[in-house]
Structure formats: C-alpha cells, structure tokens
Amino acid sequence: MSPLAALFVRDIRLAVRVGGGAGIGVLFFLIVVVLTPFAIGPDLALLGRIGPAILWLGALLASLLTLDRLFTVDHEDGSLDLILMSDMPLELAVAAKALAQWLTTGLPLVIATPLLGLFMNLDGDASAAVALTLLAGTPALTFIGLIGAALSVALRRGGLLLAVLVLPLTVPVLIFGVAASNAAIIGPLPFGTPFTILCALTLTSLVVGIFAAAAALRQGIE
Amino acid sequence: MALIDLANPTRFLNLAHRMLPWLAEITAAVFAIGLYLTYGAPDDYQQGATVKIMFIHVPSAWLGMFCWGLMSLAALGTLVWRHPLADVAAKAAAPIGAAFTFLCLVTGSLWGRPMWGTYWVWDARLTSVLILFLMYLGVIALWRTVEDPSRAARAVAILTLVGAINLPIIKWSVDWWNTLHQPASVLKLGGPSIYPTILIPLLVMALAFTLLFVTLHIAAMGNEILRRRVRSLMLMQAQSAPGSGA
After folding, report:
1. Would you call A219 and B155 a contact, using CB atoms and an 8 Å cutoff?
2. Measured between alpha carbons, how far is residue B142 from residues A70, A147, B101, B104, B232 in Å?
3. How much is the pLDDT for B246?
4. Which of A64, A161, B44, B246 shows the smallest number of beta carbons within 10 Å?
5. Alpha helices in chain A (DSSP H)
6. A 177-216: CB under 8 A from B
7. Has this prediction a pTM greater than 0.80?
8. Cβ neighbours, 10 Å, residue B231
C-alpha cells in the first residue's frame, strides 16, 4: 500500500471507530433541522419554502464543526510530524486527509438529506435537488474548512475564532448552493447555471484549500 | 532607498518621523481642495444633493479594497521574503482598512435610503463588501488572539491571501450579476462615463483619501514597532526580576 493510501485508510478507520467523530456531524445536522420548526412554528408552506436554506445552513455548520480538530489531534499524538517528515508532498497528504474527512462526515450529510427533507415538507424531487447540490457543495465546505483546521494547529486554538475566520469564506458556496436548490424547486431560473458555478467553486476551493492548509501547517510547526 | 534598507526598524522610524508632518500637511491641503471642489460640483439632475455622498463613498470603497491588496502584498512579504516590517505593515493596515470599509457601508446605506428606498439590499456588490468587512474583523480578532506577533503574522498572512480572492469578486460583482448597485463608471474599458465636473472632484477626493491612508498607516506602523519594543523590554525586565528563577 502506498503511504498516501495508508494515510487515507487510517483516517477513515479512526473516524468510524470509537472516539472518531463520523456520526456526530449527522446528529448535529439532524438536531439543527429539527430545531427550526420549533423556532418558526409548524407552518408547512413556510417550511417548504425555506427548507433548502435550512438544510444548507445545517450542513454548513455540521461540516465546519467536525473539521475543528482534524489536524490538532494528529499534532498532539505526533503523527503530523511524521507526515511532514515523509517523502510524500504535504499537499497530497492534506488532500488524502480531506477526502477521508469528506467521506466520513460530508457524505453522510448528503445521504441524510432526503430524510430531513421530509421534516421540511419537501417533496421527492425537491429533496433530490437539495441532496444533489449538497453532494456538489459539501466538498467545497470541507476544503475551505481545512484552512481553518490547519490554522488551528499554528494558533493552538480552535472553536469560535475559526468559525469567525472561515464562515465568511463559505458565503459564495452557500449562495449558489441555495440558489441552485431553489432554481430546481421553484424556478424560474434554470438549474444548470447556479449548479455549474457551485461545481466551479468546489474545484477552486480544492486547489486553494489544500495549498493554503499545507502552507499553514508548514508555518505552524517549526 | 531600497525596500530592504527599511528592514531596519530604527531607520524606518527615523524616516517616518521626518515624513509624517509633511504627509499630514499635504493630506490636509488636498482634503481642503477636494472638499472645496465637492462643494462646487453640480447636483445630479435626478439625485439632487445626495450625489455628494459619492465623494466619500467611492474613495472609501476603493481604499477598503486597496488596503486588503496592500495586506496581501505584506502577507507575501511575510511568507516569502520574511521582511521584518511586512507583518508590522499588515497589522497596522487591518484596522484602517476596516474603518474605510465601514465608512463605505454606512455612507452607501445612507445614500441607498433616499435613492433605492431602503438602507440595505442583499445585492452582490453590497454582500461582497460586507464579507470584506467581516474578514477585516476576523483578521483583527486573529491578531488579538495570539500573543507572539511572528506566529500570529504567518497565520494572518495565509488567511489574508485566501481572502484576497474576494477582491476581484467585489470589483466585478456589478458586471457579473444584474444588481441594484450601479455598474462601474470610472475604472472601466473605454474610459470613465462620468462628466468631468463630477469626475475631477472625485479623483481629488480619492487622492486625499489615499494620502490620509498613507499617513495613518505609517503612523500606525511606527506605533506598532514601539509597542513591540515595549513588549520585549517588559519581557526582559520580567526575566531579570529577582525571584523569577531565570
């Protein structure tokens, strides 16, 4: 097994076994969505209209909060130093970790979306549209959050400060994610335009996030 | 004098002390000319006297973006060339840039009330400038979180470079999306589309704002250098104090 694949498999194993955070993101997502009807009242028409926005907000917060300690844990047990010293480029190692992170926390959110769509009074097509935009958009959230996770190693701090730093950067993803879902559900805009921009944002954040996170890790460990 | 000569903080401080009175006087003079020209500029045939808000609004918007651009250059200086003054420049620029961006948002919202009938719309230009303001606040918060300035500098530098992606979005947001905010009228292909009686006061005001920024920035950099010296002197004092064990 190549070192990169070994790192990938190790991260997935750590996430799904005891002590890993794979399930907590989905639980958090579920609770945020369930809280919404209590806050705005059980008006089904209103819930149907704002449903995509609530699902996107929940997914945004869930994927950011699970990222918080992605690199800090490795830093504490010393494996981050081993990754830094190894032959493989740090950018690729960061990308492997990001992919593992998305598979264990981002993908479950996408899978849970149709169920939560029922709570939000979305019909089958609408839930499918939201799930599709989340599938295209949650990788962008993971890659952007990666920058914050890497900075928290350098700063030895996490939590609220990182949310303050990272959330403004996720605004474009949120805008086009919700725009694409709404375009599919109520129109009148075509679904393709915002959806392709969302895909473009994901690809851009893949490049920017990985390089910025690797740079932050290099600066943080001296 | 090359940029590398300024790497010595003492030399920079000397130069700053010599330049600051001159810069302040020139700034005041250009502001006087600019305000006089603004006073004499004709009212718009549709907007009346409210068009004069533009003479504050547009330069502060430019400066708000220019300041993040300068911070991005300083971030490169920190990460690539390890220029000792780069992080001082970045740190000093952040509150000034936040102030200009805030000024831009406030004047824009006061202008929007009579013209658009609302203080705020979630329009692409307005939203992207608001994000710029939030990022300034984040950067300032980051500077204030980490005690060691050089450690904070590198974290801030990476965040600044990532945030620089927002600048072209702000600039072209009015062209890419069909927005309530009017499209570019000064910096665009084919020359400005503003009549000279308005354009000239605007450019003078922009120059005045830029000079104000340079003055404030150099003064703030001087203060930051002195603040760091005080910090290291206090650290040394604490180390040599009796009973400290050092």
Report:
1. yes
2. 20, 14, 18, 23, 20
3. 47
4. B246
5. 3-16, 22-40, 44-67, 70-77, 79-85, 90-101, 107-119, 124-155, 160-166, 171-185, 192-220
6. 208, 212, 215-216
7. yes
8. 13
Contacts of B154 in chain A (CB under 8 A): 154, 216, 219-220
Q: Are the Cβ atoms of A154 and B154 closer than 8 angstroms? A: yes
Beta carbons of A165 and B169 less than 8 Å apart: no
B219 has pLDDT over 80: yes
Quote the pLDDT of residue A137.
92
CB A61 within 8 A of CB A134: no
CA angle A164, B212, B134 (to 5 degrees): 10
Mention every residue, 6+ apart, whose C-beta is less than 8 A from residue A43. Answer: none
d(CA B92, CA B153) in angstroms, rounded, equals 12
What are residue B179's phi and psi, to 5 degrees? -115, 165
∠ CA A197-A148-A93, rounded to 5°: 85
CA B105 to chain centre: 14
Of A157, A172, A215, the CB nearest to B158: A215
Q: Indicate which of A72, A147, A165, A203 best probes the interface with B, i.e. most B CBs within 10 Å of its own CB.
A: A165
Contact by Cβ (8 Å): A140, A66: no
Torsion of the alpha carbons at B169, B174, B180 and B183, rounded to the nearest 10 = 140
* Torsions phi, psi for B44 (to 5 deg): -75, 145
- Per domain, the residue ranges of chain A are 3-220
pLDDT reported for residue B27: 92
Which residue has 């606040």 as its token pair?
A: B137
A58 versus B48: the higher-pLDDT residue is A58
Min Cα distance B57 → chain A (Å) is 23
Q: How many residues does chain A have?
A: 222
For residue B233, the Cα-to-chain-centroid distance in whole angstroms is: 31
Q: What is the pLDDT of residue A136?
A: 92
